[in-house]
Design brief:
271 residues, Beta Polymerase, domain 2, seven-stranded mixed β-sheet, three-stranded mixed β-sheet
Length: 271
């Protein structure tokens, strides 16, 4: 069944999938430029392309704020970081408190919940830029908010000032001025489909092109997921996470997903 908004049929299915690729090149329904990312490819959405705010300071410290100045160890029994001075709960709280003060995020989350059912995860730069801002005092702007949901409703409930388009993977892209939301169905993620894996957030995390993208925030449980991504944030390093998906992203978006570009823009060390 076609996805509808205000009773009008759109050109894409709520489930999308690889059979939708022939429609991906529609310029009128795809707001992403060739240089922008796509979250359903495991790439963190449009916001995956690093962007430095005009007023961002060039300051760089060797460590995060005082609360995390300690050696850390990664637990191999779950997805969370375990540290002597910054445990998983404290890191979750830092992210949650920052997001709860962000009016744009709260508006985006409200729209996403209204138009989906089941679990919701925030991914992409909404997670990693927020953490970099909180831990290192950066001021990165977040213009695009990317969410993975278990199911997208067949009829979108939006105000009239929202434009609805389609991402390259067949998921809804919502746009209002410079405010962009990617609404990604868990069963319509490129890295999961190409590996013939079951749709799960764990399989999404193993399929992101770069390590810093391997993060997800469970908005219901207020939990950060992604051992690899958390380590990338806390060590301030970046490398390839999934080689096959990284090659796909490079072919689709060129330099957008180069580790060097991320390292330079986000002040990370390329390893």
């Amino acid at each position: 069944m076609g996805l509808c908004i205000l009773g009008n049929p759109l050109i894409f299915s709520a489930l999308g999938g690889r059979d939708k690729e022939k429609k991906e090149k529609s310029a009128t329904k795809n707001f992403a430029s060739p240089g922008e990312g796509e979250a359903e490819g495991g790439c963190g959405g449009n916001s995956a392309a690093p962007e430095r705010s005009a007023g961002a300071k060039r300051r760089r410290s060797d460590f995060p704020s005082k609360c995390v100045r300690a050696m850390f160890r990664i637990s191999h029994t779950n997805q969370f970081l375990s540290m002597e001075t910054l445990n998983a709960k404290e890191l979750n709280n830092l992210l949650y408190r920052s997001l709860s003060k962000n009016k744009i995020y709260l508006e985006a989350l409200s729209i996403v919940k209204k138009n989906s059912s089941g679990k919701v995860w925030l991914i992409g730069s909404g997670v990693y830029k927020t953490l970099l801002n909180v831990l290192y005092g950066h001021t990165y702007d977040i213009k695009d908010w990317d969410f993975i949901v278990e199911k997208i409703k067949s009829t979108l409930n939006l105000e009239n000032n929202w434009k609805v388009g389609e991402t390259k993977g067949g998921n809804p892209k919502l746009k209002k001025n410079d405010f962009v939301i990617d609404l990604i169905s868990l069963d319509n993620i490129h890295s999961i489909q190409t590996r013939n894996l079951s749709p799960s957030i764990a399989n999404y995390l193993t399929g992101t092109p770069l390590t810093i993208q391997s993060l997800a925030f469970d908005v219901d449980e207020n939990l950060i997921l992604g051992e690899v991504g958390i380590k990338s944030i806390l060590t301030r390093t970046i490398s390839v996470n999934n080689a096959s998906e990284n090659n796909y992203a490079k072919g689709a978006y060129g330099d957008t997903y180069s580790t060097k570009r991320y390292a330079d823009t986000l002040r990370l060390k390329e390893i």
